[in-house]
From TrEMBL:
Name of the protein described by the UniProt record: inositol-phosphate phosphatase
InterPro entries in the record: CysQ/Inositol_MonoPase, Inositol_monophosphatase-like
Record's GO cellular component terms: cytoplasm; endomembrane system; membrane
Keyword presence, Membrane: yes
Cofactor(s) demanded: Mg(2+)
SUPFAM superfamilies: Carbohydrate phosphatase (SSF56655)
Membrane topology qualifier: Single-pass membrane protein
Pathway linked to the protein: Polyol metabolism; myo-inositol biosynthesis; myo-inositol from D-glucose 6-phosphate: step 2/2
Subcellular location: Membrane
Keyword Membrane: yes
Major location category of this protein: membrane
Transmembrane segments: 7-24
Chemical reaction(s) catalysed: a myo-inositol phosphate + H2O = myo-inositol + phosphate
Amino acid sequence: MSVRTRKTIFCGIIILLSVLYLYTNRTLYTDLQDKNISLKLLLIAAIKAAEIGGSEVIAVHNQAKFEIQSKGKTKEGINDPVTEADYRSHCAMVHSLLETFPSITVISEETSKNCDKITVSNIKNNINNLNDYDIKDEIININDITVWIDPLDATKEFTENLLQYVTTMVCIAVKGKPVIGVIYKPFETKQNSSLFWSWTNHAVSRNLQILHKLEDEKIPILIVSQSHAGQIIMF
């Protein structure tokens, strides 16, 4: 074997090893990136998802007519409706979250229906940041995270045009414990009163920071549902 041939073989081996090294390290880096998620970025994505879902709810409401179906009755015997707005919001919210975090677990109150007909803008590269908030981030393994969404809370009220009660909601749980909540009111007209969010032991939206405490904390506040009886617990 000539010297030239040996040099050629040696160079080929070096190139092959270099390619394998780069590929292996890139794969490991990708795996690490995919396995860990910034909760701060996930909060931002949750906010955008709630807003995108709200836009779909508004779009359906603005139609001349929309279909109202029934999922059955609640245990109290009240009709439990579902509308096109529920499905469209579901598709938009799930799509936007999975587009940003493809491996994340998302559980919705609704099921997918004609999602291929819903066009949602990609929020992966243009989600707003929270620079105005001094928030310490947390990096969490993706297997420990579950995102729960309600694409349209208060569907019955939505069908009755009681729009002040309509919301889209996102809950982020870590190891089964809820740590982040987002509520968006798509029909709210008051300034700074449509979006609310909270991250346990980290931060809350500014409109929650300025809430005044009751002068007399002994006066109870009761929140009731038209569809579910619930229970009142005295402390």
